[in-house]
Amino acid sequence: MSAQAGFFTSSIGRKVVVAVTGVLLVLFVVMHLLGNLQLFAGAEKFNAYAAFLQSMGPGLWVARIGLVVIFLAHIVNAIQLSRESRAARPEGYVYDNVVQASAASRSMAHTGILVLVFVIVHLLHFTLGILQPEYYEFLDDQGRHDVYRMVVSGFQVPAFSLAYLFLMAVLGVHLSHGISSVAQTVGLSTMGNRKKIELIGASVAWLIALGYISLPVSVLAGIIR
Ligand code: HEM
Description:
Elements: H1 3-9, H2 11-36, H3 43-55, H4 58-88, H5 96-127, H6 147-155, H7 158-185, H8 194-220
Helix pairs in contact: 1-2, 2-4, 2-7, 2-8, 4-5, 5-7, 7-8
The chain binds protoporphyrin IX containing FE.
């Protein structure tokens, strides 16, 4: 095995891959949120934004393929790390920090799986229009795909809005642990500043989650309609 291949399959190599891909995914989630917050600006702005993304043509496909590769690298390495840490944990080990670390990584695995399920369902919903096909066909008065009407009609169904709300909260929990784990992997976190970094990580995570949650809530409340 070459030195590089050895690094990427070592525990620290995998942690670095999970951290770097995690940061890239957070960047995507923030960009996607900024785009989606334009729902508050009305149909014209939102549909123009969606049409602009579609007009990127091959660039959009490069970004999509890049996103899939990053997502897969994140998941495969995270699963492998969690397996290795479970295998390395001796039975009946009672030191507090070990128990805490494994509880946090177990919760990362659970919330991570839910986020993955969310992304799959979300793609079936808004990207492929399979879940509510009746809302996928709308065109606006300029003949563009009426993404605004599709999203608003989707969230006017309380079951969909509530499912999104719950899953965005799960995303908040996942990012809340994830952001401080990245700081630890890259060596920013020390005994002295650990609590502060956890607080910053949680604040960023919940700002993102609340930004997303504001959308279905505003549709249910009739603020976006
Ligand atoms: C209230 C929450 C959200 C809304 C309203 C929303 C809206 C949308 C819409 C309308 C699309 C389709 C864009 C188009 O085809 O024109 C889309 C695609 C997508 N969304 Fe979301 N989204 C939300 C949350 C999320 C979250 C939290 C994630 C990631 C964890 C996410 C990941 C994606 C991905 C990966 C795509 C596919 C992008 C593509 O095909 O180019 N979304 N979203």
